[in-house]
Write a structure and sequence with these properties.
By secondary structure, the protein is an alpha/beta fold. It is 32% helix and 23% strand. Strands 1, 2, 4, 5, 6, 7 and 8 form a 7-stranded mixed β-sheet that branches.
């Protein structure tokens, strides 16, 4: 007889073992193409980074199995290994489940269900920690680090009439310069910094739109910056593109994905398989970029 399974969970320092009772599995099939959507009556389509059904949960970029856990979909990476037990690991990419070759998929799925609460809690904790770290990086104070295109710039505050600026020994491409009145508040510094960031965002977004539009065979007519709290962008049938200026905090690969996504809507005002084929024409690795965007800290509230 086979020895009883012992489930091992790893979350940096480990986790607790699963209980012996196994509920009936509730496993979803591999992620299918999105069903064709109905074009909105206003011919407007918006992208929040959460437009596919599975986006409401947690997804590993190399996911090959899916489970409904605690009311959310968790798409995880399943791997066979030489280990003697089923193991769970939560990391930056999401959940990875490893099991010996002799363990059946039914047993794996049952183990995932048994630890559903633990898995969802750890995934949420990891996401919350990333968001907290991101928000703490934006202090809007003299000398603070500000996320910019996936790296950081040092916030350098110049007091008008004084001429003093912090970080003047740094290269120009490593600072975010702002000019404020003497004794300016944190809010004034933040507002001045965001004016600079929005200017950089508009310049970059226009450049990327000009680059990708010809590749997709579409024409955009107007770009507006958005400050939406949940949406990265939107597109109208008349060629009006709206992009969230906070994208400027993220790496260029993720910005390009949103740009291509919105431009593709000028050909397909839905999220049908044809739409994703359109995106893939110019960005074959869009799925990886999309996953990275979905795992980025999206709650960029201003202090």
């Amino acid at each position: 007889m086979r020895a009883p399974l012992q489930f091992v969970l790893d979350f940096f320092t480990g986790g607790d073992p699963v209980l012996p009772n196994q509920p009936k599995p509730s496993i979803l099939p591999p992620e299918p193409p999105t069903s064709p959507g109905k074009p909105p009556s206003t011919s407007v389509d918006e992208f929040s980074g959460k437009d596919l059904p599975l986006a409401t949960g947690f997804t590993h970029p190399a996911a090959n199995r899916h489970a409904q856990l605690q009311g959310v979909v968790v798409s995880f990476r399943f791997e066979r290994s030489r280990r003697k037990s089923i193991g769970f690991m939560v990391g930056a990419d999401g959940l990875v489940v490893r099991a010996p070759n002799w363990v059946t998929l039914r047993e794996v799925d049952a183990a995932v269900q048994e630890k559903g609460a633990w898995i969802v809690a750890k995934l949420q904790q990891f996401k919350d920690r990333q968001t907290e770290q991101f928000q703490k990086a934006i202090e809007w104070r003299h000398g603070a680090d500000v996320p910019f295109l996936g790296r950081t710039l040092q916030l350098c505050v110049l007091e008008r009439g004084v001429g003093r600026v912090l970080g003047q020994d740094l290269p120009a491409d490593q600072i975010l310069p702002v000019a404020v009145p003497p004794g300016a508040s944190v809010t004034q510094v933040r507002d001045a910094a965001q004016v600079w960031l929005k200017k950089q965002a508009k310049t970059l977004f226009e450049e990327r739109l000009h680059h990708f539009a010809p590749l997709l065979g579409v024409r955009w007519l107007k770009l507006s910056l958005s400050s939406a709290s949940t949406r990265w962008g939107s597109a109208r049938h008349d060629g009006h593109i709206r992009l969230n200026w906070r994208l400027i905090h993220l790496p260029i690969s993720q910005i390009d994905y949103v740009v291509v996504h919105e431009l593709a809507h000028l050909r397909e005002m839905n999220h049908s398989p044809r739409f994703w084929e359109t995106v893939g024409e110019v960005m074959p690795d869009y799925a990886q970029r999309r996953q990275a965007l979905r795992q980025a800290p999206v709650d960029l509230k201003e202090d």
